[in-house]
Specification:
Strand order of the largest sheet: 1-2-9-6-5-3-4
Shape: globular
Mean pLDDT: 94
Structural class: alpha/beta
Low-confidence stretches: none
Distance between the termini: 47 Å
Radius of gyration: 20 Å
Largest sheet: 7 strands, mixed
CATH topology of the largest domain: Dehydroquinate synthase-like, alpha domain
Number of domains: 2
Strand content: 15-25%
Bound molecules: nicotinamide-adenine-dinucleotide, zinc ion
Length: 359
Amino acid sequence: MSAEASENRDLGYPIFVAPSVRAPLRNFVAQSADRFVVLCDANVVPYARQLTRGLKGRLALIPVKLGERRKRLSTVEEVLRALLHSGADRQTLVVGVGGGVAADLFGFAASIYMRGVPYAHVATSLVAMVDAAIGGKTGVDLPEGKNLAGTFANPVAVFAHIDALATLPYRNLREGLAEMVKHAVIEGGDLFESLEQLAPHAFWRWPWENVVADSLKVKTMIVADDRLEHGARELLNLGHTFGHALERASGYRVSHGAGVSIGLRAAGLLALRTGRFSRDEHLRVLTLLTLLKLPVCTRRSLAAIFSAMQADKKKRAGRLRFVLPRAIGDVEYGVEASDAAAKAVLKRIAELPGGAEFR
Ligand SMILES: NC(=O)c1ccc[n+]([C@@H]2O[C@H](COP(=O)([O-])OP(=O)(O)OC[C@H]3O[C@@H](n4cnc5c(N)ncnc54)[C@H](O)[C@@H]3O)[C@@H](O)[C@H]2O)c1
Ligand SMILES: [Zn+2]
């Protein structure tokens, strides 16, 4: 069964969402390049093969062992050399297939190969579909920290291959759900309500094609507003100030999605404390996170999380700024809060919700 792909052009490059993106991908490649190379995460080779088999001009299909630990410069060098050996030149289209690590690393490699070749990404993970593949930030980690080397380089097209979600491990699906809740709090309205309605149902029953298309629209609209991150793009950091601190304080044992989920609750609590947000709406967000089985509290040391936040503050010229909801669908950025308020919130996220929060 192949429904027609929906197409989003807010960013000036097309983003196709379909159960199978085989047809739109093949049309796009046929129209835009004589030759192309497929780079794929070694875990999704069957998708890469099935999507590009028999398509004219394929120089090579190159599986690359990825994973967060391989998101580093040495892997980029391997990829660049593989591109060279495949015969790719400046006119060759590079098609990357995989999750967020693939989007970041292959996108980066394409942006520097021979000073930059066109890059299209086929997203196979939920994080890649609603977040990583969109917005043109590429890059890799350095031993000192995440995403420290990279480029701003827009892809020429993005394809969300919804059928691939069927094989995505559940823990990776949850990483994407946390960002989807973030998008829903930013956007509010139907997007938030549809997640509330879907949350109690088994994932296989979700209309993923619509869910992904609606969620990624939030990111495309914000990025389109603010391509180089001077203002509105900050909104996408909702839940991330607390989340990043928690991730770092745990030595990255707490995943990014878990950090964002707990961070969304923390942002709600801080907004409540500073009189911005209503208790009812805070509880709606908390209930949604809980129904999706996303974490909302942590047993990590509060002192460690607080000092990770202080390190962040030093980097940002002594000020810690938060992105906080005023309402579901109305989020503001650049809000300063006192250390005492941040500490009080951290204390709350060390407790199970319940008690006062749910009364
Ligand atoms: N550039 C950006 O704007 C941006 C935004 C968000 C996240 N990111 C980056 O994205 C990365 C996280 O992305 P992720 O969660 O997709 O991680 P990932 O790419 O490592 O994918 C998660 C795991 O699932 C596997 N996988 C992917 N698709 C699959 C499928 N359909 N079936 C079975 N297995 C599949 C992968 O091989 C991997 O083991 C991080 O490195 C993060 O920094 C970047
Ligand atoms: Zn994030």
